[in-house]
Amino acid sequence: MRPFRVLLAFLLVAALAIFFLLPWVLKERIRKGLEGAVPGSKATVGAIAFERPRHLAVSGVSVRSEGLDLSVAKVRIGTDRRVDVHGLEGVVRALPKKASASTRSAPLPLRAVHVHSFTLTYQANGIAAELKGDLEYDFSSGTFARIDVTLPSLKRGDLSLENARFRTGADGKGELGVATVSRKELRVTAISAKATLSPGKLDLTALDAAFAGGKVTGSAEIRFETPVRYTANLSVRGLDLAALGTQLDIGRKVGLGGSVDGEILLEGDAADVRRFTGKLRGTAKGGDVVIRDRATLEALAKNVRQPIELVESAFQEYHFDTAGAALALEGDDLGLEIHLDGAKGKRDLEIKLHNFL
Questions:
Q1: Is the model's pTM score more than 0.90?
Q2: Is 52 helix (H, G, I), strand (E, B) or coil?
Q3: E strand or H helix that includes residue 237
């Protein structure tokens, strides 16, 4: 009987050791996995416990680095290798660098991660933004099973975005909505589009927005390269020239009336707009142009080699029946070549809007 008692005692001690040591071993593995995923970071893991049905619960998780300051209230890991993250909050000051082979810890064998109701402040690459929402990522397919993210605000230099929401499902199809996008005096509102998220890019179709009293429709493609690049093909309908003049802050110099339609091509990357071209044409009702600014009249007279008195007279209460304009971006300046035709004859204008973007 004595050997049996010794064996029983040994097994009891071993079981107790495993019971007390297993949480510590798991905590260390999770901590090292987090530090391996974010090079140069320090991770902490609080309490760990087993919950029904068949879940490991980890609370008080944090990851700190020069560019990150994240905390998580609770993480639940199931035996099916699905992870639920609750109470994620933090600040992102720089995107984490990719872990090298020498620093990368053995990854946890996860199947999917669902981040519930996270709140993040992003302060990197000249961008200040708030992000809130819900994300679910499927490691087996390498795709997002769910995205529902709102951006109450985003600012980058003169660019401002307010009240945006982006949603997609497991098939990558969803929608985008933005209340307002503005840059300097220009404002585009009530933006909506159908979205399709696929590896490496986001396609926006059935795009619709309001701008300067008119409508903007079209499509866009965003490519997740380095840097991020985008292309947009847009059509404008019924754009009000008086409202546009107000947004461009040229109303004191040039009085405009009427409306135009047209097409615009926009290309750029995360740093800036690289290409902005388009063609506009007046609608059937025509419009009006009055040049009030003396300096503008003098520059125009010099370009057309005409006396300023003649040019001034030509643009007093000028009504056009047909109009056409070509737009082209030169650096930060937008050049417009405008051709007008009315009862008082034809008028040709070249206007450059400095620091347009």
A1: no
A2: coil
A3: strand 229-240
Query: Does the residue 241 lie in any domain?
Result: yes
Q: Beta strand pairing status for 201-211 and 318-320?
A: unpaired
Lowest-confidence segment of 187-201, 217-231, 281-295 by average pLDDT: 281-295
> Domain count of the chain?
1
Phi, psi of 108 (to 5 degrees): -70, 135
Compute φ and ψ for 308, nearest 5 degrees: -65, -30
Q: What is the DSSP letter of 304?
A: H
Residue 294 in domain: yes
Q: In terms of Cα–Cα distance, which of 307, 181, 325 is closest to 256? A: 325
98 against 223, higher pLDDT: 223
Q: Which stretches of the chain are assigned E, i.e. beta strand?
A: 42-44, 48-51, 55-64, 68-78, 82-92, 112-124, 127-138, 143-156, 159-168, 173-183, 186-198, 201-211, 214-223, 229-240, 254-269, 273-291, 318-320, 322-330, 333-342, 345-353
Q: What is the pLDDT of residues 43-83, one digit of tens each?
A: 888 888 888 777 888 889 999 998 889 999 998 888 888 88
In the predicted structure, residue 36 carries a pLDDT above the cut 90: no
Domain span at 326: 225-357
Q: What is the pLDDT of residues 2-22, one digit of tens each?
A: 544 444 444 444 443 344 445
Could you tell me the two tokens for 236? Answer: 């404008």
Kindly list the distances between the CA atom of residue 148 and the CA atoms of 21, 108, 139, 151, 334, in Å, as whole numbers in the listed order.
39, 25, 18, 10, 37
Nearest CA to 66 out of 37, 44, 97, 45 is that of 97
Q: Is there a domain that residue 214 lies in?
A: no
CA distance 348 to 340: 6
CB count within 10 Å of CB 261 equals 16
Asked if the structure places residue 271 within a domain, the reply is yes
- Mean pLDDT over all residues of the chain? 83
Q: Give DSSP secondary structure letters for 155-196.
A: EETTEEEEEEEEEE-TTSEEEEEEEEEEETTEEEEEEEEEEE
